[in-house]
Amino acid sequence: MSARSKPIAVTLGDPAGVGPEIVASVCATSGGVIDGRPLRVFGPRAVLERAFELSGATAPRIDCVDTGLVGPWTPGAPSVTSGRAALAAIEAATAACLRGECAALVTAPISKTALRMAGTTFPGHTELLGALCNTSEVAMMFASRRLNVVLTTIHLSLVDAVAALTTERIAGTIRFAHEAGPWVAPDRPDRPRIAVAGLNPHAGEDGLFGREEIEIIAPAVEQARRAGMDASGPYPPDTVFMRAVRGEFDAVIAMTHDHGLIPVKLDGFEHAVNVTLGLPFLRTSVDHGTAYDIAWQGRASSENLRHVLAWTATRLVGQK
């Protein structure tokens, strides 16, 4: 199989959410091929077929790996069944990527509640994929129209996120951003310009509003610079994203989840891509949840998924 013919693995996500609808919509309008790259869907075939029926579109011949269902489920509501189905699809698609059968993985949204009901303790895709790939060192990046933001902490309360910040953790996040150079800075893939945001107002104002910048963040930046990376900061969080939008930086390191995601989603919610860094393959996802409130009503937009698939296919060009 040539590199170009390797499919992109696409999971259906939680069957009770909008995932099956948006996957079916993209497959119906694209014929199961995005920018010359075929799609391989992982999830319950019966759910995918039901989504095609809902859309009223003619179902194309889609390469689907049927991971099945284990019981009843209700559209718009998390359940043990929907959680197990989502988990089975992720596991099967990840295994296919690890075997080299698929070139990348694109995931539809899942429910943390449903996963917990199904018995898993992972809070989301990122942590689960890290475990399936046998690596604890992963990072979450979000790419919008004009921003690439890598998060130092992810699914933690704000108090716990601040407590989790260490020089080593921040330095590792900078390294992930540096290694993502081909994706965030195609014109300088070996040396992307990385800005590190501070934690406190005014980046601590020389210690007046907190010493994390002085004692934790600045040493991580210096460590990265000594390793040959184009990293700088820490910068005040309220201006660094604006500077990146204007073209001064290729990627920004944010200390907490919402510090990074508020500007990304403001820059373009329907054109934001969730990327997991540190895996042995490219994994991307939509930047929205299961939307249970509109699921299986024919109202869900597939625009974000369509953009994510196109973004992913573009980054696979030249991959062996």
- Average pLDDT across residues? 92
How many helices? The count is 12
Instruction: Note the run of SSEs as H and E.
Output: EHEEHEHEHHEEHHHEHEHEHEEH
Architecture of the largest domain, according to CATH? 3-Layer(aba) Sandwich
Strand content range? 15-25%
Our count of domains comes out at: 2
Radius of gyration (CA) equals: 20 Å
Determine the fraction of residues in helical runs and give it as a percent range.
40-55%
Span from first to last CA? 11 Å
CATH class of the largest domain: Alpha Beta
Number of strands: 12
Shape category: globular
Based on secondary structure, the structural category is: alpha/beta
Low-confidence segments, given as residue ranges, are none
Query: Major sheet: size, sense and barrel closure?
Result: 12 strands, mixed
Any idea what the CATH superfamily of the largest domain is called? Answer: Isopropylmalate Dehydrogenase
